[in-house]
Known about the structure:
single chain, alpha/beta, 2-enoyl-CoA Hydratase, Chain A, domain 1, six-stranded mixed β-sheet, four-stranded mixed β-sheet, 10 strands, 45% helix, globular, binds coenzyme A
Amino acid sequence: MSDEYLDLTGTDAVRVLTITRPEKLNALNRATLAALHARLETLAADPALRVLIVTGAGTKAFVAGADISEFEGLTPAEAASYARVGQAVFDRLESLPVPTIAAINGYALGGGCELALACTFRLVADTARLGLPETSLGLIPGFGGTQRLARAIGRQQALELILTGRQVDADEAVRLGLALRAVPAATLMDAAQALAAQLAARAPVALRYAREAMAGGLDRPLADGLAAEARLFGLAAATADMREGVRAFLEKRQAVFTGR
Ligand code: COA
């Protein structure tokens, strides 16, 4: 399924969503953001979906940022509302009921890095470069970068990357904890599919509750996090998949999860 700037392929369980504007290094213009938001709404309601992989068309870029050509002449109010639009799209992505994998096949700059930060996992090709260069345009990250980068890699490292605009390569992205793994560019999609297959074999509701229990991360009081964990542990125990998982273990067979 494809529209002007997006392409959706794959099986019912593992879908690959590709930003397809390679002539502009997949820069996110307003039309692409709107298409992405609409597509994510549909995917959020799809009970067959288990994992979503997000990537960029071509070999050069994942997404080279928001479309800079749309910045000129923005009033402060328009710019703030534009940031809100991008934030809403990435919030929709982050809050999908299934885990997501950014397969970063090249430049992931500005809004591209922020798109990746809204995914559950980031896999990087050895050719990738990541960064938040907005301050070089006299701007700041506006699609969640000031919030999610610090949560991903810590405040000090995030401050350096945001205030200097420095790009990092794949190895440094892994060292910083910004990416899970770096792989040769030619094997990136295979690596993403292998991780997706592992995730798709697990109980979907358990994955959702585990992510929900971890949301908010280290920012909330431990007691609140533990209370959420216990509540979600209780909810997981009410699922058919929990009964199946336990029974399969006792019967020494592979569990077959249905998502209920
Ligand atoms: N917005 C709009 N257009 C973009 C873009 C962006 N963020 N990033 C790349 N493009 C366009 C270029 O304008 C160019 O279009 P053209 O062929 O019509 O002139 C095309 O994509 C190819 O990019 P180009 O700059 O020629 O490639 P390069 O290999 O020389 O450089 C980058 C690659 C990523 C270093 C460079 O494109 C760049 O710095 N992009 C902007 C990154 C950025 O600041 N992102 C944050 C935005 S908030």
